[in-house]
Every structure is written in structure tokens, then in C-alpha cells.
Amino acid sequence: MEFQLWGAKIVIEPKPDLRYLYLEITNRCNLKCEMCFKQYWEDKEGDMDWDLFLKILDDAKEFPELKMIYFGGIGEPSVHPRFMDMVREVKRRGFRLGMSTNGVLLEDKILEEFVKLGVDVVYFSMDAIPTPSNIVTLGHITSKVVESRIKKLVELKKRYKTEKPTIGVEVVATKENYKQLPEMAIYLRNLGVDSMLISNLIPMTKEHSKAIVYDGSVDMTPIVNELHQIAEGGPFMRIAEFKLRTNRYCDFIENNVTVVRWDGEVFPCYRFLHTYPEVIFGREKKVIAHSFGNVKEKSLKDIWMSEEYVRFRFLVKASAYPSCIDCPLNTSCSFALDTTQDCWGTSPSCGDCLWSRGIVLCPIPFEYMGKFL
User: Fold this and answer.
1) Coil, strand or helix at 285
2) What CA–CA distance (Å, rounded) separates 218 from 179?
3) How many CB atoms lie within 10 A of CB 257?
4) How many Cα atoms sit within 13 Å of 26 on the Cβ side?
5) Residue 6 pLDDT level (bands cut at 50, 70, 90)
């Protein structure tokens, strides 16, 4: 495969080197969190068809380096009517399995089956330490539920004498909770959590942007230093950047990840999975979903090795795209209004991506101290 870049000839030999297959088995959710993508996107809701799911698992056999299938995306996987059938089928076929969940629907019998089946990673969402039951805000209620799920899972792992699943917790740092992060890390350690991921908020509105802590309004240095000290005794931590940095690194591209949406469309990352508004350092932008094909029409291998998708991955890995975030023209440039294309001709545009700057992180199983590398 050959293409031109800045007068140079680029030659790439496409390989079936997919390592992490993310499946958005549903984009529905049992919660309605104010700052979630789902409250602002333009997409319809749906569940992955069972036959499509089986077809994707069949396609996954063509990737000899595949390390894990991960139920993620934007939605709560456990609301899928055949969620546990999907869990069983992935493990029956011998794949490693991870998932992100709010935990609310994971009753004790489900957690026990996770342990018996050998589910590899369960990542819970939690943004606050649970408070007394008279506090009735949604965040504190769900945190209390997650606490009970984690305690049960730790108990079951001890009972069955297994280290699986690895338990992770994802926290989104905001002005409301950032001072509590060190205390929360110790709290999670005491619960038996293996990994803590601290990410940042992507505002959907200018009102939301008032809550971010990576715009210089908050000095996060002492908080981060304290977190690093705590991490020496566990849990393992991945901590986002809290200021804009020059280096660009895409976890999805560097770790050979692809994301299949509930309807079969194939995406390079979470950012392009749906169409929604975002606010980047006070500037409004529209993210437009960008698929490289549909597994209903082609094999996943053919999509992964297609010229368009291979070229895109190369350009992102080489950071061969403009930095719109700190460009002095970004308030007047038409390319900065959405992600259709950037001023260097790359489509879709990654120039404003907060993931590539390390400001936003997502659970990727490679982080577990080498367990899945």
C-alpha cells in the first residue's frame, strides 16, 4: 500500500494486528447523567443484534494478536437484553473479556458468574466517595451501589481463590471532586480495587466547561503529587494531564484498538463513535461520527486493513495533523468548527482531540502492570 505525504512516498504493509476489540453492544443506559454524551448527541439508540455479535466474534478469529474483547463505548452494556449471553459466548470462545459499567444492574448472581467464567477486567464508574443515605443526589447514590458491587466482587474472588476479574474504577475529575481524589484513592485501595483511572470532563456546553480543572483555573500539582505517593501502595493509577502539553499520543491508535458500534459501524476510537457537541477550552465544536466501514457488509479484517483506515492510523501515529487546540486562528477557521476535515486535508480531524493530549483517558487493558501485554 502506497501513498504520498509531503512529497515523500509512504509504503505500508497492512497487517491483521488488531489487539483490542471494543464492542458497544448497546448505546442505551439505565442512568441519565447530566454531563454524559448521551444527553446531547444526535444519534438514535439501539442494541447490537445477536447474529451481528456472533459474526463479529467469528471475524475476531482472523486477528492472531488479539488480546481482549472489551464491552465499552457510550452506553451501559448490562442493559442489553442478552448481556449475559454475550459474556458467556465471549468466554466460551476463549477470548479475554473486559468491560466498563456503572455497576447498578450487576446483581450478586451476575458478579458470581463473572468470577466463575473468568471475566478478566471490570471497570466501574465512580466520581465520589459514598456518603450517608440521606444524601440523595444521583452521583452519591450510584457511588454507594458501586461500593457494594466492588465489595461483593472482592469477596467472591477470595471465595473462589482467583485474581479475576481485575477491578478498576474510573473517576472524572471536576471542580466538585478534585480535592477528594487522594482520599478516594485510599478509600479504593481499602476496598480492594486494583486500578484507578483519573480522567477529565469533556464539556458538552459552555456551562459544563466551568467545571473543568485543566484550564489553569486550578493548581492540580499538589493533588497529583499526593496521588503518586499513594500509588506506591496501590491501587495502580493512570492519571490524566491537567494542562495542555505539546506531545500527542493516541492510546487507541498506539495500542491497535478498534471500536464496533451497536449497528456494526467500525470506528478508530471513542471520540468519533457518535455525533455530538463539545467545548474545547471555551470554544464550541461539533464532533461528527466517522466510520471506516460496517461489519454487516465486510469482514472486520478487510475494514482494518483497508487503505483509508491504514492511512488514517499512520497519520495519527505520526502526529501528521495540525494542532487546532492552540492554533491562533482557531476562533475564525472554518476547519475548527467540526471534525469533518482539518486544514492539512486529513479526515476526520484529530486536531482538537483531548484524548491525544492525555487530558481525557479511557480504560484500556494494557494499563494493568503488564498483565495483558
Assistant:
1) strand
2) 10
3) 25
4) 17
5) confident
CATH class of 16-362: alpha beta
pLDDT digits (tens, 9 = 90+) for 14-32: 999 999 999 999 999 988 8
Going through the chain in order, the beta strands assigned E by DSSP cover: 2-5, 8-11, 20-23, 68-71, 97-101, 121-125, 166-173, 195-200, 236-239, 257-260, 266-267, 276-280, 283-287
Name the residue type at position 236. Answer: F
Side chain identity at 342, as an amino acid letter?
A: D
Cα–Cα distance, 357 to 46 (Å, whole number): 31
Which cell numbers in the block locate residue 221?
Answer: 500539582
Residue among 139, 115, 151 nearest 35 (CA): 139
54-76 pLDDT, tens digit each: 999 999 999 999 999 999 998 99
From CA 190, how far away is CA 127, in angstroms rounded? Answer: 17
> What are the extents of the domains in the chain?
16-362
Helices 138-159 and 181-191, interaxial angle, to 10°? 30
Task: Determine the 3-state secondary structure of 88 from DSSP.
Answer: helix
348: preceding bond cis by omega (within 30 degrees): yes
Label residue 48 exposed, middle or buried (CB < 10 Å: 0-12, 13-18, 19+).
buried
Rounded CA separation 147/195 (Å): 15
- Residues for the chain: how many in total? 373
> pLDDT, tens digit, for every residue of 146-200?
999 999 999 999 999 999 999 999 999 999 999 999 999 999 999 999 999 999 9
pLDDT digits (tens, 9 = 90+) for 271-306: 999 999 999 999 999 999 999 999 999 999 999 999
> What gap in Å lies between CA 216 and CA 349, rounded to an integer?
25
